[in-house]
Amino acid sequence: MPRMTVNDRPVEFDLDPEMPLLYALREAANLTGTKSCGGGDCVGACMVLVDGTALRSCRITIAEAEGRFITTIEGLSRDRSHPVQQAMVAEQAIQCGYCTPGIVIAAAALLDRNSAPSKAEIEAAITNMCRCGVYPRLVEAIQRAGRVMRRGESISAAPAPGISAADAAASVPALRASPSDPDGGS
């Protein structure tokens, strides 16, 4: 039975050792933030940190992960306070959200190695596919997260887990009606 540390907790999987780590995390550990392309197309939505390196969890078996330290999107920051998570929200670099966990993991690994990456370094490191096309905002979000990490600043962009919809809506500025649109555009 393969043993590893997942999100700082020891885990032992009583599963086929050749099972991809992705499915062990999603189905046995109920860590569903790690997404799957479902057909081996591997768009990077399944990224996790393995001993600090961003890897596609569909490409590593639980036997290969034995004895290693695995960090999923859930373990990166339980309160969404990681600079990459905050910058992604602040820079509006999230659309449908499917690819976001993998991108956040890949960006966190990049910034751990280099907190001041150039656009070219970001493009080389973030090989994840985003069908919504957030790439220009993504580069700025990663550079902003790097600035936050270097300077010790914070971004208060994402609401804390458990925030009510009413409280979240109250924090967004109301749309104002223009003279030609008395309903405010809705």
UniProtKB/TrEMBL annotation:
State the SUPFAM superfamilies in the record: 2Fe-2S ferredoxin-like, CO dehydrogenase ISP C-domain like
Protein's UniProt keywords contain Iron? yes
Coiled-coil residue spans: none
Keyword Metal-binding on entry: yes
Q: Which InterPro entries does this chain map to?
A: 2Fe-2S-bd, 2Fe-2S-bd_dom_sf, 2Fe-2S_ferredoxin-like_sf, 2Fe-2S_ferredoxin-type, Beta-grasp_dom_sf, Diverse_Oxidoreductases
For this UniProt record, give its keywords in alphabetical order, as a comma-separated list: 2Fe-2S, Iron, Iron-sulfur, Metal-binding
Instruction: Cite the 2Fe-2S ferredoxin-type domain residue spans from the record.
Output: 1-76
Task: From the Swiss-Prot or TrEMBL record, give the protein name.
Answer: (2Fe-2S)-binding protein
Upper lineage is:
Bacteria, Pseudomonadati, Pseudomonadota, Alphaproteobacteria, Sphingomonadales
